[in-house]
Amino acid sequence: MAQEVMIEAIPNFSEGRRNEVIDAIVAAMDLCGVLLLDRSSDPDHNRSVVTIAGPPDAVVEALFRGVREAATQIDLFRHRGAHPRLGATDVVPLVPIYNTTLADCVALARGLGQRIGEELGLPVYLYEAAALRPERQSLADVRSGEFEGLLRDIHLPERQPDFGPAKIGSAGAVIVGARPSLIAYNVFLKSGDVTIAKRIARAIRERNGGLPGVRALGLLVGGQAQVSMNLIDFRRTPVHVAVEAIRAEAARSGVEVERSELIGLIPQDALFAAAAHYLQLPNFESSQVVEIAIEQSIAHSTSHPLGSST
Amino acid sequence: MAQEVMIEAIPNFSEGRRNEVIDAIVAAMDLCGVLLLDRSSDPDHNRSVVTIAGPPDAVVEALFRGVREAATQIDLFRHRGAHPRLGATDVVPLVPIYNTTLADCVALARGLGQRIGEELGLPVYLYEAAALRPERQSLADVRSGEFEGLLRDIHLPERQPDFGPAKIGSAGAVIVGARPSLIAYNVFLKSGDVTIAKRIARAIRERNGGLPGVRALGLLVGGQAQVSMNLIDFRRTPVHVAVEAIRAEAARSGVEVERSELIGLIPQDALFAAAAHYLQLPNFESSQVVEIAIEQSIAHSTSHPLGSST
Q1: In angstroms, what CA-CA distances link B272 with A274, B266, B267?
Q2: Cβ–Cβ below 8 Å for B310 and A27
Q3: Which of A261, A266, A271 sits opposite B271 (nearest CB)?
Q4: In this structure, which CATH number among 3.30.450.20, 3.30.230.10, 3.30.70.670, 3.30.930.10 belongs to the domain B183-266?
Q5: Residue B180 to residue A17: CA distance in whole angstroms
Q6: pTM above threshold 0.90
Q7: How far is CA A181 from each of CA A212, A258, A261, B127, rounded to the nearest angstrom?
Q8: What tens digit of pLDDT does each residue of A59-89 get?
Q9: Are B31 and A264 a contacting pair at CB < 8 A?
Q10: Which phi and psi angles does A68 have, rounded to 5°?
């Protein structure tokens, strides 16, 4: 597996309620060689996050087909949900996994964006590492004003798409980019007061001087205050550090954390680091995990067969 | 890998200081087909724990050779250490991993014990699931009085070995058995008072009415109080539950936990469970871990190749 060339992609679709629509989009992406790693839908966000992985060309083809299907199935004029969005396929990040680089994913993202613009006639914005304009690196900036704002402003020079026409229909616009692996993590508060979640989000997010690599929004989800985070570099700000920061900020408002949830996938090292932190295991190494020790030992014995008693 | 027949064994040798001795014992066990998963030595315990895995016959042969080597290298009349012991090879548990049962390991342990008794002339006691007498199921009972006590009492009927002669030399006796997988976990207190560690151990261990599947000893290690545990069923008493119980008991003596350490290996599910507990992730599933999702998806796509758009 480690010898393969593999990228991951996590397309976010603006449908989290109608299962038949999500099924149709996922079926459109189901290509030979593409692994469907995860699929999670949130009716409050009215959004689905699909995680796929595989060889770069196969993943890009699967994404193109998913975007095409979503554009026919989802009508932004009728879409309501807690999560901000610009389009039917709202955002498509490409992530290097095995034997690929962020630069490879930038090139793939730009190629995919161009094809979506030209063949599907949708406005496309490139973001993060794939951005062509510095002011489009931040996803929050690209998505500012959401679908409704873009409908009004797409004719303005600063909102000119990177690919495709400067006009917008029921499928909205597609944001395509490349970034390192991230963890999407939501923390629910024992409170229905969204202003507390928004204050906490401001306190912890990097762009307001908070924790490195943390993006955060305060949302109201099913009547409950939620801090919705992206941890873009869990080795700089581990999950447990972000959660403890939220607990401390919430305590300042007299509020407790009720529970958390993962959206999509998390690297095993992020969970091992959290366990080692709370269990106070300063010398923990992943080679102490049975399953990893067996895999490493098999890999080693395959490359260096053991002799007897040497 | 999951198709293979594999057992694990974790022989404990009474040498944790002289590296050349441990090297010689490990080299004696280095057979084709046997994976060396872990090796950890503790100079205070004066003890080394080696974890090997592989096909049953190869593992048993490696164990026999390790026991034979340890008997020539280690002199119990000169051995001092914080950890109780009966012999040069103190205890040899066999553990089922893939496609084997505890009953298989019982049969293997009894066969190994008989061979050690007959070919090496060492007294052998069978314990845990392999015990031939109910009063020998508990390792603590078998090891009661340690080497020095056995030297005095081996002629008594109740100390008659299960295999080998009822006489004891510099290699002491060997305890062989079979058990389910366990986690060996030590918690250091910010205290040099071993009576606190002993009180905590009594409070949390199963045999004194504490936590199910928890064995615990209070020790003094390098001048520091330590609660040394075996968690024999981490699904009944998870690591984080045992650690929290120790923290609460320590707090009653006004003492804090300084750090913990793993001896040998831990199953990934035990760490995932600890992370999910402390991060408050009630709906966590291991399929949300990137590495596991990729493996499961590859296994699935190998058995059921994906068609296009079905």
Answers
A1: 9, 11, 9
A2: yes
A3: A271
A4: 3.30.70.670
A5: 45
A6: no
A7: 15, 27, 18, 48
A8: 999 999 999 999 999 999 999 998 999 999 9
A9: no
A10: -65, -45
